[in-house]
Structure formats: structure tokens, C-alpha cells
Amino acid sequence: MNFSGWHLRPRCFLLPTAKQSYAHLAVFFTPHNSNRRTTQAATSYSSSSLITMAHKPVGGGGELLVVVGGGAAGVYAAVRAKTVAPELNVLVVEKAKLLSKVKISGGGRCNVTNGHCLDSQILAEHYPRGYKELRGSFFKTHGPGDTMAWFSDHGVELKIEDDGRVFPTSDDSSSIMDCLLNEARRRGVSLQTGKVVTSASYDPTGKFILKIEKRSLNLIEHAKADYTLIASGSSRQGHKLAEQLGHSIIDPVPSLFTFKVADSQLAELSGVTFPKVKAKLHLQDMKRNIPQLTQVGPMLVTHWGLSGPVILRLSAWGARNLFETEYKSDLHVDFAPDIHKEDLKALLSRHKEQFAKQKIINSYPPELGTVKRFWRYMLDREGIDGDILWASVSNSAVNAIASFLKNCSFGITGKGQFKDEFVTAGGVPLSEISLNTMESKIQPRLFFAGEVLNIDGVTGGFNFQNAWSGGYIAGTSIGNQALNANLHTSEEIMYNSEEFPG
Ligand SMILES: Cc1cc2nc3c(=O)[nH]c(=O)nc-3n(C[C@H](O)[C@H](O)[C@H](O)COP(=O)(O)OP(=O)(O)OC[C@H]3O[C@@H](n4cnc5c(N)ncnc54)[C@H](O)[C@@H]3O)c2cc1C
């Protein structure tokens, strides 16, 4: 029987009687369209061979962890579990290609984490879903500093850019992929691709029965696992597995997107960037005042509307409400956030006096840091003739310009796409897992990590950090449980071997 490189190791069960033989069922397969007769991986051991195993160095004792999903969280967790418990059998089942999102992430450069948020409290504030729960042990156990140390200890040189984003110095995501996959292979993690885990249940002993399909070969396998880690990202299939094992799912909705604005004149400004604006999202039916719905930072005009860090952050904090209102909302932008409105009026009035003989279209205060195209857009929206001289500009027009710059409103009509990064809000509720271990509170030995959980961050490396932290904690917990299980099994075998010498 070919298990494609997956080496089975018998699990040491308790020894109920001497000289009894043990058949350990670990993985069996059923071809599609057959009568689904199961073929056991018939590995029989006499009690004496088990006793011999008990004297091997303590490791994972041959227990099996199946990781559903070979993304950032799954592979990192698999490596960690195998590091903690080298004798634990670790199988990663990936339906497509391993680390495919790592590959395309950050425009092909992979923004691994954020180097400006080493404090776990501050870091947690970057997660619209999770900011309360993640303030505890989660990032303290494995935060951005630990992630950076892990990659540099494993040979990947990293750099922190001015805005805090961390990239490999190669500016190539394959540095991160190669590192993870080499480490997984070196430690003996079995990585199987092109296979989908399509259903999950557990038997009376608490072991997981996972149905694994390789559709290209019309093959169905079943794995009997001691531990299951669901690290399936935002996939609906992963949510289904969680539901089959007793969990609920918070409906998934997109996060990190740009805003469509139906304004043809604004579209003409496509490419214009504003280094610093203060933007406030007014959500429909939103009674509470959420401070995160006001963001300060760069904004960019696109062909279809608005983008840039400020907009992406607002899209994340408003993701659920915007989804419910079909992405209809109002955005109020302050284009001069560092200038008080009265000071702005005074600045414009001084400019009016100083440049009285110039056409208003050609002259504006440099302190505004704006470009002519935007100035013209502003005059058009306010109905001010650009050909009039500053001398002829009325005080009410000065006030209107100041009001526009301090509180310009845009009607959001839809959701645009941000090609560099997008994530899903929703998934398994955090109330159903223990963040200290990433273990399910509903089903023992079931773990979750990464985007399958109701955690998502804003742009800047925060989403991968969730995957690394969750993967590390889950891998550590599973590894420790496997070590303990083996210790107990060894003790019991030794006890029995005294009673029933082989
Ligand atoms: C274009 C893009 C760019 C991004 N760039 C960045 C960035 O630079 N920095 C950052 O922090 N974040 C970035 N993100 C977000 C980041 O990629 C995700 O948050 C992260 O990949 C989540 O990791 P994960 O392991 O939880 O899920 P994933 O990476 O999605 O991995 C889950 C894996 O599980 C597999 N799978 C699902 N269901 C099954 C099943 N039933 N059986 C078998 N396999 C299954 C999937 O095929 C997938 O490979 C980006 C996202 C996108 C889309």
C-alpha cells in the first residue's frame, strides 16, 4: 500500500493482556464507486514488540496529527508540533498548493509581520475581529519579535520598512516558503497536496475520522487521527469541518477592500495621493461611536473611488456593517487634519490678500500640500469659478473652501478590490476555543489556527502574524500533549511488562 511518503508508526495502546496482538488502524482508503470496503493498514504487533517500543526514547509515541490546510498557520504549526514532539506523526493535507497565499502575498514580497507593534496590547488593536481576546496571552506567547527571530534563526534575513512592515531582504516570498517547507521536510512532516479533507467525525474513543479525497485519482482515504488541527483559512470546506465537529461559524464576509465612489470628476484624479488625511466612515444604523471608524493616514484616488491605508483600515473595521448595507455608506474626509478650521480660514484669507491678482485656479496655499488637479476638483464641487481672481473671492467662498477641506463627503456605492491583500472576517468564534492552547472547548484534541478563526487584521503583516502565533501555540500544545500521552503509555507499558514479561 502506498501512503505517498507517509510513514505509519504504530501507536502504543495500553496493554490489557499479555501476548495479545494489536492491529493499528491509521489510514485506509476506499476507491470511489467501489463498495467502500475498508482495507486496514494491517500492522500487527505482539505485546512483546510494544514493550520494546516502550523503551525507545520518549517522543510522540507514534500518535498522529492531521493538519487540514498547508497554508501559513498549518505549516508553521506542523513544524512546531514536530519540534516539540519529534516522534509525533504529522500529516499536512493541502487541497491545492502549499503556502499559495504566502507566495502571492505582499505583491510577491510577503509582508511577514509588523515590526512596529512588538507590544502585544498595541498589536491587538490592529485586529477588528479579535482585538479584545488577543490582548491576553496570544501574542505574548509568540508575537512579531518571536516570528522575526524564528525566520532569522532559520536563515531568512528580514528587514523592517519605515511603516513597520517586515519583508525578507530578498523581496521575494519564496524565501519564506522555502524556509518553511525545508524545515517541515527536515523534521519529517508529511506534506500531501492535491487532497481535500471533505468530512470529519470522531469515534467513541475520541479519535478523529477524516475523509480525505484525491479527486484527480478518484480516491478516498480515511485518516484516524489522535489530533486534528483545522488551519483551512477562509475556505467554506474548513468551516464545514468545524461544524461537523460541533462548532458554530460566524458568517464570513470580506475585509480589506477599497471603496467605490460614483463620481466621474473624482475618477479624473486617479493616481493622486494624499499623504495624510483623517477619514471617518458613517455606517448606517450604527448607534455606537466606534473610534476605529476614524482613521488617519495616506489615501489614494483610484479609477473607481478611494484606496490606500486609511481606506483599507476603515473597510476592515466596518466590514460587517458594510456587508449588511450592501456597501452603501458615507465617508467624511479631512484633507488638512493638522490645521484647525479657524486657522485654515485665516490661512486662506492671508493667501487671498497676498495673491489678490492671481486666478484662484492657479494659486493656493502651499501649506495645504495639495495638487492642482484636486484644487480644481474642489472648486468645481463648490461651484466656484476658477477664473476669478482671489481678490473677488467672497468670505463665504473662503468659508466654503475651508469647510470642504475639513469635511468633504463622499458617497460610497460599493466595494472595490485590493489586489495586494484581502482577508475574511468571520469563522469559528473565539469563545469556542482556548487561546492559550488553540484547543477547542467543545472537542478535546481539536485545534484551530489562522484565518479559519474569527480573527482578521488590518494590512501591514498582521494577518500572517495571526497565522504564526496561532500555529505556534497550537503546535506547542499538540506537541506537549503527544509527549505526555507517550509518557503515560510508556509508564503503563513498563508496568505491564513487569507483570507480563514478554
Ligand atoms: C493576495 C493576498 C495577499 C496577502 N498579503 C498578505 C501580506 O503581505 N501580509 C499578511 O499579513 N497577510 C497577507 N494576506 C493575508 C494572508 O495571506 C492570510 O491571512 C493568511 O494566508 C492566512 O493563513 P492561513 O494558513 O490561516 O490560511 P491560508 O493561507 O488560506 O491557508 C489555508 C490552506 O488550507 C487549504 N484548505 C482549505 N480547506 C481545505 C480542506 N478541506 N482540505 C485541504 N486543504 C484545505 C487551502 O487550500 C489553503 O492552502 C494576503 C492575502 C491575499 C489574498
UniProtKB/TrEMBL annotation:
The lineage of its organism: Eukaryota, Viridiplantae, Streptophyta, Embryophyta, Tracheophyta. It comes from the Eukaryota. Residues 65-476 form the RsdA/BaiN/AoA(So)-like Rossmann fold-like domain. Keywords: FAD, Flavoprotein. Transmembrane segments: none annotated. This is FAD/NAD(P)-binding oxidoreductase family protein. Residues 253-423 form the RsdA/BaiN/AoA(So)-like insert domain. It comes from Kalanchoe fedtschenkoi. InterPro entries: BaiN-like, BaiN-like_dom_sf, FAD/NAD-bd_sf, RsdA/BaiN/AoA(So)-like_dom, RsdA/BaiN/AoA(So)_Rossmann. Its cofactor is FAD. NCBIfam families: aminoacetone oxidase family FAD-binding enzyme.
